[in-house]
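Reviewers asked in the last cycle whether our approach scales beyond single polypeptides. To address this, we selected a multi-component target totalling 1032 residues and predicted its structure end to end. The input consisted of the following lines:
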Amino acid sequence: MKLIFEKGAPGQHLTLLPACDVPEVTLSNARTEPLDLPHVSETELTRHYTALAKRVHGVNDGFYPLGSCTMKYNPKINEDMANLPGFTQIHPLQGEETVQGCLEVLHESEKLLCEVTGMNAMTFQPAAGAHGEFTGLLLIKAYHTHRQDTGRTKIIVPDSAHGTNPASAVMAGYTVVNVPSSPDGCVDVEALRAAVGPDTAGLMLTNPNTVGIFDRNILEITRIVHDAGGLCYYDGANLNAVMGVVRPGDMGFDVIHLNLHKTFSTPHGGGGPGAGAVGCKEFLAQFLPGPMVAKDEKGYHFTVPAHSIGRVKNFCGNFAVVVRALTYVLTLGREGIPEAAKNAVLNANYMMKKLGEKYAMAYAGPCMHEFVMTLVDLKEATGVSAMDIAKGLLDHGIHPPTMYFPLIVHEALMIEPTETESQETMDEVCQVFLDLWDLAHENPQALHDAPTKTPVRRLDEVGAARNPVLRYNAG
Amino acid sequence: MNFPAELKYSKDHEWVKTIDETTVLVGITDFAQSELGDLVFINLPQPGDEVTAEESFCDVESVKAVSDVMSPCTGVVAEVNGELEDEPQMLNEDPYGAWIAKISDVTAFGELMTAQEYEAFIAK
Amino acid sequence: MGTYIPNTEAQRKAMLSAVGAECVEDLYAAVPREMLVEALDLPAGCSELEVRQKVTAMAAKNRVYATVLRGAGAYRHFIPAVVKSVVSREELVTAYTPYQAEVSQGILQSIFEYQTMICALTGMDVSNASVYDGSTAAAEALAMCRDRKRNKAYVSACADPQTIEVMRTYCFGSGMELETIPEKDGRTDLSAVTLGADAACVYIQQPNYYGNIEDARAIGEAAHAAGAKFIMGCNPIALAVLETPAACGADVAVGEAQPLGLDIAFGGPYLGFMAATKAMFRKLPGRIVGQTHDVDGQVGYVLTLTAREQHIRREKASSNICSNQALCAFTAGVYMTAMGAQGMRQAANLSLSKAHYFAGELEKAGLKRVHSGEFFHEFVTECKNPDKVLRRLDEAGILGGLPLGEDRILWCVTELVSREELDRAAAIIKEVC
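The resulting structure, written as structure tokens, was:
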């Protein structure tokens, strides 16, 4: 498909702005280089971007069981609410008395999501999960610094963790200590006990963990870290399994981030914008990025925490994403939230059971909201890899599961159906998986060659990296 | 696979070519490049960097992974092979021609093997 | 309660029996009993109509101004109708990061086109796929310039104060030093500092927070003379008519791309653009899309140079960023396509000319400009009683400029404000002052 730069003709344009009605001004250091932007008509523009949209698989196009990413349905009422002019047309630096509705959104969202997570305060400034991790770790750093406990330089991360965990720890100035997982995929408690000490600043953990198992030792784990003087950070990537059922705050976590774009149904937008809200216990609230929203008899107002780490982003974060999440929480309410979690878990177990007929599971069930298959044996027997199965799914209109993650499982496929998929859809998808298993044995080449029905086939990533072409060059 | 007899080999899969008593050329072995797969970039050390035997002194990237290259000796980086920045595929195509760094003032070596010993080592 | 769960009670029962569980709670056997939540203290769920009423009532408590003369980091510009129509396509809205390139070509190609447009606008060689916003782009840019010997960033005091604060927060994490370069007459006074051997970079904003045009070339030359990198934080609309960061010698150009077709939306979501010279491009954080071919030789696009990133490099990665603001970058791309070079220049010229017209009218009304020299679409005036002035404007449905302390106001004019509105605002101010 042509690039937008290759379409239209010089001189084609839309008529958008009026003539200047005041004396024209020019700058002395004006731009001298040409400005090579596309030149197309409105028809051409619309067709180009519509064609691009058709070359994308979204949740609305079909099943999207991308493990660890919680690709649930994105309710349309959320979009409607976020697009109200009373939100979209508000300048972030308007006077407090003119933005009471926006402040109410932030304050209500904080209150409701603190209740869901067992936290006492929450900021919506971080724009994504990784941004939330960084913010949360700075809270931990500020806490130790404030107590003049300066010897705490290490963050403990399990080897199954997402890559952002160690990367965030380093950005926050920490060194990373990796602890191994037990054979059951949970934290090796003895290894953790050996790893903590007076240099421990904190532990980063997801629970359920990255292999979809709830760590039954969680209270002991958080106690070990606390006894060593460290704090516990909860990566909320997997909260969808347990929201309303059990709270990170009750597990012993001091600070958490939520991915509003996973658990709370806001769309992923092809990679963003999301929101990585960070919640914490009372004793850490004084370090949160400012401003926060407080309420008194006169209404809502901004306030900056006493020992704030400072802003992590301009203004109040991805505000419109928070509007969507609030709409979702208000819709589900106290019954709907645990109901969503339980159905996410049921759906995952159902698929695990059905796929277990042929595929090997990395860990025995029951699972939480996702599970990991290991295709090592299949690859040995047929030469067909996790990647090949994934590409085979594409030809059936199914987005593949997360591949090759977590790193501790070889030939991994991680499946997370979410609660918004029907039994009917899951039955159909499981049948495709099982058929592909048979195909792997009968005609492995067909899977090495897949996909064949997508807009493009497998792409040369090595060539792309060795000779990077990162922009269009005319002529 | 090819393991020239005139070179020495480390257990971390680097080769060492002696230039004089305290100067060597270092690269990765044929075995290493085949295990790593298609390499797409190398983060070269900088001339003047002090390197320590059996510690990382640069890294190479494939599409899906990044791997440390361990220095087979302790010394100072005298020169690097800048061509590899533009043509990392040379590491795959000609591993013994694609030297990574010239290391001078060598004061110590890690454990090194002959070609024969290295072949036996990787066969294990 | 509202729900998005499709399965009926009967279907759930059938599924439970398939997995061999009595009830869903059985599946939570690993959770310590004492930890289970009995009931959340949340309101009961509700129907779509009730939710619509609740949230609409919140939106109604906000004041929407017909005329906006405030910028300071968030700019209300004209957004062509076609932008929203195209950007609301469900496929794009509901997709995730393009990990499966074969079914993500639309997103990948749109990012490739966005990268090309950012390069065109800035004159730089390489752009990434965008980051969270302008302030985090600036903070990431400082980190790009840091090396073993150079650990200090010099940041202009004329940059957006929120952006400086974000940089400081990031530096609190990384341990990089940050020194501000003082202001003189509303511009960066580089002569007031000595760039040492530890200087990693110099950061300026163009036009700066006060709307003034910096002598970017001279600052860039001084930075380079000290062996430091030069970073420019730019307003993308201004770049249509102002010399490019590349022409000024910038090693890294960043900025807030919200003016490119995004609503002000109480501060977000926006997006930060980041572009660099060829020499620096491997240090760019975040996603980058590259062009390649598929097995049949067809042109296609992939996420590339990924071994720089956290999912591969983990604790050795230079940034933890794992997403971009893809839908916002898409929006910016559609906006720049709709506007074209001509439309972009027109938006910039209208903003520039109207801001100068308004500055003249304000001077006649008694509010003199504080700084000398050239400015783009923002400027600072004196004002003895900003509260009173802004209140009177407010009563007339006009959001006035941003008060800076007790006696100054930072004004902003874009193409959205007509001459009549400017005259009306000036007349009100003349009455008050």
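Chain B has a mean pLDDT of 93. We regard this as preliminary and will revisit it once experimental data from Aim 1 are available.
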